[in-house]
Every structure is written in structure tokens, then in C-alpha cells.
Amino acid sequence: MKGQWGLIAGLIVILIIAIFAVINVDPVEVNFLFGQGDWPLVLVILASVLMGAVTAGLVGMYKIYQLQQEIKQLKQEREASDKDNQKRRKDRKKNDPPPAPEAGK
To answer: Where are the membrane-spanning stretches (predicted)?
Structure first.
């Protein structure tokens, strides 16, 4: 159900952006580093939204990569700790004195 709400919210945002872009069709002057040009405002808006989405996606992918690396490291540490604990248990069993016989039997 959570995914459906996310899809609905995404569609609403896309609809709002599309309406806003269609309303603004007047040409505007756009200055680039290497020149300038007159573009329809709708293209400027859509290009800006696309660049923002790509930037947010790249930042999100980088964060996911970092978290995956952290998970991998923590799993390795846990496995090493588990092996160490098993070794300690085996050593403890070897060094423990045998149980005393019960009196009365």
C-alpha cells in the first residue's frame, strides 16, 4: 500500500509540473557559459526539473552505495566476532574441570 501512495503522489507532482509548464510557453532568454539563446519557458522548466531529479537520484544512489558498504563491513565484523566467540567457547570447554560425581549414587 505504501508503494501505491508513493506512485499517486509522484503522479500528482508530475501533473502539477506539466500544468505549470504548459501555462508558461513564452520564450525566455537563457544564458549559458558559452552563449545565450531564446527558449520556451516550458523547456527551461522541464529541463530544470529533469536536472534536479537526476541530481537527487545520483545523491540517493551514492548514499545507498555507502550504506551497502557499511552493511558489508558490519557483517564481516559480526562473522569475525561469532568465530571468536565459538573459539572461546571451545577453549572454555577444554579448560573446564570435569563435573564432580554426585554424592549418593
So the answer is: 5-23, 43-65
Cell numbers at residue 64, please?
Answer: 545507498
Give the C-alpha separation, 76 to 65, whole Å: 17
Residue 87 has pLDDT above 70, yes or no: yes
Q: Which residue range forms the structural domain that includes residue 51?
A: 18-93
10 in any annotated domain: no
DSSP sequence for 61-72: HHHHHHHHHHHH
Q: List, for residues 57-77, the tens digit of each pLDDT value.
A: 999 999 999 999 999 999 999
In whole angstroms, what is the distance from residue 9 CA to residue 3 CA?
10
Question: What domain count does the chain have?
Answer: 1
Q: Which helix (H) or strand (E) holds 31?
A: strand 27-31
Name the β-bridge partners of 87. none
User: Letter for the amino acid at 30?
Assistant: V
Q: Which of 50, 54, 72 is nearest to 62 (CA)?
A: 54
Decide if 99 is inside a domain. Answer: no
